Amino acid sequence: MNRFLDLADFSREEVLDLLALAKRLQEKPEPQALSGRTLGLLFFNPSLRTLSSCQVGMTRLGGNSFVITPNHGSWQLETAQGAVMDGAAAEHVREAIPVLASYADALGIRAFADGHDLAADLAETRFSAMAAVCDKPLINLESAVNHPCQALADWKTMDDLQVAAGGKFVLSWVYHPRALPLAVPSATVHMAAMRGMNVTVLRPEGFALPTAIMDKARSAAAAAGGSVSETNDRDEALEGAQVVYAKEWGTTAPYGDTETDAKLRAQLRDWQIRPDWFERTANDCRLMHCLPVRRNVAVADEVLDGPRSVVRQEAFNRLAVQMAVFHRMLARQ
Ligand code: CP
User: Fold this and answer.
1) What CATH number does the domain containing 57 carry?
2) Pocket flag, ligand 1, residue 223 (CB < 6 Å)
3) 48 Cβ below 6 A of ligand 1
């Protein structure tokens, strides 16, 4: 495997194979598998889980890693093509990425969306430009509209909990004080569809996921025997749900319009998941969230601390799936 950028690049069988490897490595560690291998980690944005699970995952497999966080102990990096670099950035990714790749056996990059130009973000313009100058295996650690490692961990979490593949999966918008990117909701709706679930995207007006994201998920659902729908009707969405996946994201009407976003979300503080959201769901309905989560803003304490919440299992599974991805990319056969 040379690239891990999007679950959609893999067949369902290949994803199941990666999940089986994650389970195997969890149960039977291979402390020498990546001996002498180095993973370079380039983080343009903050992280708790992704950064630490990558570093620990490499260590547990006998390899090592280094971390570059531009402008925090290393040069500020320019990513725009054709930029006149007379501002703060001292170096362009066109030099920096080949240099880092030459020191490493694989690179992982986190670079969130610009959040202004929907077409550019949907096309992963910035990430693709960096991928084009990386001649080593590359892992997407969250880009403009994707977070495949999180999606793989969430799939594993549902497998571990024996959530039925054909069950009802509700991806619900939840309140946050400011607009967040589309990476996790986009990856999540696709992952659940690819797993064969009947997916409902529950979101207020003004927060519909882009058509391209919904169409991609619908194609995955059609291939896997599931479905994808969307609504702003909370009761209808939650009826019979087996999973409620909470996520915050910014307005798409229009995308990146901070003034419209602020006006819309000011009315939406009641989009906080509280115990009464589960009155119509399946009895054993689970609450998922990729973390970080704002307590009593996005999800109430009673839900996060109650038996429905599997947010910690999702985070724990980040380690197992990172190890599977590294092993598949870097283990000597
Ligand atoms: N879920 C996730 O990617 O967490 P971090 O942003 O902390 O890495």
Assistant:
1) 3.40.50.1370
2) no
3) yes
Q: With a 6 A CB cut-off, is 198 part of the ligand 1 pocket?
A: no
Place of tokens 């009407």: 253
Q: Which atom of ligand 1 is nearest to the CA of 147?
A: 3
136 phi, psi to nearest 5 deg: -120, 165
In 133-226, where does DSSP find H-type helix?
148-160, 183-194, 211-224
Same domain flag for 141 and 190: no
Pocket test for ligand 1, best of 41, 47, 154, 318 (most atoms within 8 A of CB): 47
- Which is the closest atom of ligand 1 to the Cα of 142? 3
Take residue 131 and report the two structure tokens written for it.
């991928």
Residue 312 Cβ inside 6 Å of ligand 1? The answer reads no
The CB of 227 under 6 Å from ligand 1? The reply is no
| C-alpha to C-alpha distance for 189 and 170, rounded to whole angstroms | 9
> What SS3 state is found at 262?
helix
Residues 142 and 200 in one domain: no
Q: For 183-217, write each residue's pLDDT tens digit.
A: 999 999 999 999 999 999 999 999 999 999 999 99
Which of the residues in the chain have pLDDT under 70? Answer: none
Please check whether residues 183 and 289 belong to one and the same domain.
yes
- What pLDDT was estimated at residue 332? 87
The answer on 189 and 123 residing in a single domain is no
Other Cβ atoms within 10 Å of 85 Cβ, number: 12
Determine how many CB atoms are found less than 10 A away from the CB of residue 140.
23
333 C-alpha vs ligand 1 centroid, how far in Å?
31
* Residue 305 sits in the same domain as residue 322: no
The best mutation among 318, 319, 325 to test binding of ligand 1, ranked by most ligand atoms within 8 Å of the C-beta, falls on 318
The total number of structural domains that make up the chain: 2
Domain assignment of residue 140, given as a range: 3-146+317-330
**256 within 8 A of 210, measured Cβ to Cβ:** no
